[in-house]
Amino acid sequence: MALIELISREAVKIPLVATSKPEVLRELVELLYENRRIAEVDRVYEALLAREELGSTGLDGGIAVPHCKSEAVKSLTMAIGISRKGVDFDSLDGKPSQLFFLLVAPPDQTGPHIAALAEIAKITKARSFCTTIVAARDADEVVKLFRSE
Questions:
Q1: Is 114 strand, coil or helix?
Q2: With bands split at pLDDT 50, 70 and 90, how would you rate the model's confidence at 148?
Q3: What are phi and psi of 49, to 5 degrees?
Q4: What angle, 0 to 180 degrees and rounded to 10, lies between the N-to-C axes of helices 127-134 and 110-125?
Q5: How far apart are CA 78 and CA 146, in angstroms?
Q6: Residue 41 contacts by C-beta under 8 Å, 6 or more apart in sequence?
Q7: DSSP 8-state secondary structure symbol assigned to residue 55
Q8: Where residue 130 falls among pLDDT bands split at 50, 70, 90?
C-alpha cells in the first residue's frame, strides 16, 4: 500500500490545538476514531504511549512519527497533524515538532507498517516539501501536496 492511499482530508488536522506530546497523540487518535478509522480511542492511545516509552518518535527538523500496533484497527491507517507553534515531542534535535505522521497498524500486518515508515523517512529528507506541508492552509491543501509530490 502506498502512503498516498492512507492520506485523506478527514485524517488531516490543521492546526492541532494540543500543546503537549500526550495531547497531540490523543487529538490525532480522536480524529481517527471520529472518522471510523479505529474502533476505540483508549486502546490506541495507550499503545502509542507505550511505544513512546521505548523511545521518542520525535525526529529532527520538526517532524514526529508516532506509531503503534493495535487490534483496534483492521488495516494500516494514518493521521497527519500540523502544529503552527510546535510541540515538545522529545525530538532528536531538541526542537519542537510541527509535522506529525501518526500510524496505527494491526499486530499481524508488519509489512505495510514498515513500508509506510520507510516512505515517511524519504519524505522527511525533503525539507522544503515538509516546510510546504507545515505551511498548508487546510487539509485539502495537504492532500493536494502529497498527490502532486
A1: helix
A2: confident
A3: -60, -40
A4: 100
A5: 14
A6: 26, 29, 30, 33
A7: S
A8: very high
Pairing of strands 97-105, 77-87: antiparallel
**Which residues are part of the catalytic machinery?**
67
Q: Does domain 3-148 have CATH number 3.30.70.20?
A: no
CA gyration radius, the chain: 14
Specify the pTM: 0.95
3-state secondary structure of 8: coil
Closest CA to 44 of 104, 112, 113: 104
Residue 131 has pLDDT above 90, yes or no: yes
Q: Where exactly are the structural domains of the chain?
A: 3-148
3-state secondary structure of 148: helix
Q: Give the start-end residues of each E strand in the chain.
A: 12-13, 63-64, 67-69, 77-87, 97-105
Contacts of 12 (CB under 8 A, 6+ apart): 79, 80, 81, 82, 139, 142, 143
CA distance from start to end of the chain: 17
Residue with cell 498527490: 147
Count other Cβ atoms within 10 Å, centred on residue 130: 17
Separation of alpha carbons 133 and 146, rounded Å: 9
